[in-house]
């Protein structure tokens, strides 16, 4: 039985990946912060099927112990401060978690388990203000926020360790991927939540935004720049790509994305339309929410992933958004029922 260690198992991707690898017959070890594991999290339902090793990836000793204890065939390094917007106010911490922790992991593997394969979670945010229409494995990076800068550092160190020490490290340069498990502070989930509130006639939502205001206030959802466009895919498709990347004989980097671009306006339209509402009556652009420096409008060229891995996405943008809206309706109905009882 193959053994896999997942850092960031409590997050969106980590929990889907754990489910996927369990289906493939893997024994799973997850590195998680103790306080996070004992809170409800996206991997809570797997508690009896996985072994949790407590630790913080910013602590080299925790990473080294996890590698020694799990003796993994494969490591999926997903732990991250994963909010680019928030990385402005947590720049040094973001570098620790998204940059230096990766190098600590590479070091731990180099010394204690050089035969282990590592998947490293890179990000399309590294392309930043790109000058190309589509981005592939050869597109230069031009990060424009602390999150992306830290990811670029880790990505380059992954390549350097791979080339210099002949360790199997493969990075997935993943474009945005969303799901029912995206936390509420992410843009796509906010839109799904806004559409769910509109469907249920909720004018002031029970959940609040970063400014402590209801996410939907007086029937309106505040967003930033509605013109930004992204390549948004479905997270369970993307964890399958992570696994495929590590099944290759030789380590290599892959761009993973749908190859289709949608604006935030498109996202709003699809989400509100799925519940029969007009998004333009429910959403407005608030200048306060525009990022200081927006990345460019990036879209993946996933040709290499298709050709080498045979990977193609299985869930469309419209289907994904519909699933997210339905999940939020379900959640809000549950909250309402609890409040009434
Ligand atoms: P996520 O849901 O935010 O999960 C992040 C995970 O990292 C959580 O389990 C979190 O644990 C853990 N973590 C954070 N700081 C940690 C620390 N100091 N020590 C140990 N664990 C820590 O992120 P995701 O969406 O699943 O993304 C997975 C990876 O892919 C990340 O590296 C992300 O940057 C990258 N990525 C994501 C996307 C996307 O669109 N989702 C796109 C490109 C790249 P807690 O529960 O303790 O906070």
Polypeptide structure, described:
With 341 residues, the chain is an alpha/beta fold. It folds into two domains: 3-178 and 234-256, 3-Layer(aba) Sandwich (Rossmann fold), CATH 3.40.50; 187-229 and 261-292 and 316-340, UDP-galactose 4-epimerase, domain 1, CATH 3.90.25. It has helices spanning 12-23, 34-37, 60-70, 91-112, 146-165, 187-200, 235-246, 264-273, 303-309, 317-340; strands spanning 3-7, 27-32, 51-54, 74-77, 117-123, 169-174, 177-178, 216-217, 220-223, 229-230, 233-234, 254-256, 262-263, 283-285. A seven-stranded parallel β-sheet has the order 3-2-1-4-5-6-12, sandwiched between helices. The longest helix is centred in the C-terminal third of the chain and has 24 residues, at 317-340. The mean pLDDT is 96. Bound molecules: NADP nicotinamide-adenine-dinucleotide phosphate (NAP). The site of NADP nicotinamide-adenine-dinucleotide phosphate has 24 residues, from helix 1 and strand 5.
Structural class, please? alpha/beta
Helix content: 25-40%
Largest sheet: 7 strands, parallel
Categorize the overall geometry.
globular
CATH class of the largest domain: Alpha Beta
| CATH topology grouping of the largest domain | Rossmann fold
Strand content: 15-25%
* Quantity of strands, as a count: 14
Q: Name the CATH homologous superfamily of the largest domain.
A: NAD(P)-binding Rossmann-like Domain
Overall mean pLDDT: 96
**From the coordinates shown, what is the CATH architecture of the largest domain?**
3-Layer(aba) Sandwich
Strand line-up of the largest beta sheet: 3-2-1-4-5-6-12
Number of domains: 2
Unique bound compounds = NADP nicotinamide-adenine-dinucleotide phosphate
Give the SSE order as H and E letters.
EHEHEHEHEHEEHEEEEHEEHEHH
Number of helical runs? 10
Quaternary organization: single chain
Q: Specify Rg, calculated over alpha carbons.
A: 20 Å
* Low-confidence segments: none
């Amino acid at each position: 039985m193959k053994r896999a260690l997942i850092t960031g198992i409590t997050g969106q991707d980590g929990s889907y990946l754990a489910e996927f690898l369990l289906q493939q017959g893997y024994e799973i070890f997850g590195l998680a912060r103790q306080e996070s594991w004992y809170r409800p999290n996206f991997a809570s339902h797997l508690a009896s099927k996985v072994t949790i090793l407590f630790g913080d990836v910013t602590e080299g000793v925790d990473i080294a112990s996890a590698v020694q204890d799990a003796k993994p065939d494969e490591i999926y390094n997903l732990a991250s401060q994963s909010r680019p917007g928030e990385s402005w106010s947590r720049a040094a911490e973001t570098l620790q978690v998204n940059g230096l922790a990766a190098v600590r992991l590479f070091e731990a593997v180099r010394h204690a388990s050089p035969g282990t394969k590592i998947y490293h979670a890179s990000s399309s945010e590294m392309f930043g203000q790109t000058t190309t229409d589509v981005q592939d494995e050869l597109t230069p990076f031009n990060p424009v926020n602390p999150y992306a800068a830290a990811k670029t550092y880790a990505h380059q160190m992954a390549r350097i360790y791979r080339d210099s020490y002949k360790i199997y490290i493969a990075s997935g340069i993943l474009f945005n991927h969303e799901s029912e498990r995206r936390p509420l502070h992410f843009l796509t989930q906010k839109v799904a939540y806004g559409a769910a509130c509109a469907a249920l006639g909720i004018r002031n939502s029970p959940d609040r935004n970063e400014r402590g205001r209801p996410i939907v206030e007086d029937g309106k959802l505040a967003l930033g720049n509605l013109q930004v466009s992204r390549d948004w895919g479905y997270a369970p498709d993307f964890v399958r790509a992570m696994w495929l990347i590590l099944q290759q004989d030789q380590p290599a980097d892959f761009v993973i994305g749908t190859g289709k671009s949608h604006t935030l306006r498109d996202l709003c339209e699809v989400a509100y339309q799925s519940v029969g509402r007009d998004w333009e009556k429910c959403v407005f652009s608030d200048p306060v929410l525009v990022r200081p420096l927006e990345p460019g409008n990036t879209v993946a060229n996933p040709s290499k992933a298709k050709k080498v891995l045979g990977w193609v996405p299985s869930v469309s943008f419209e289907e994904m958004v519909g699933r997210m809206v339905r999940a939020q309706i379900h959640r809000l109905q549950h909250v309402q029922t609890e409040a009434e009882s």
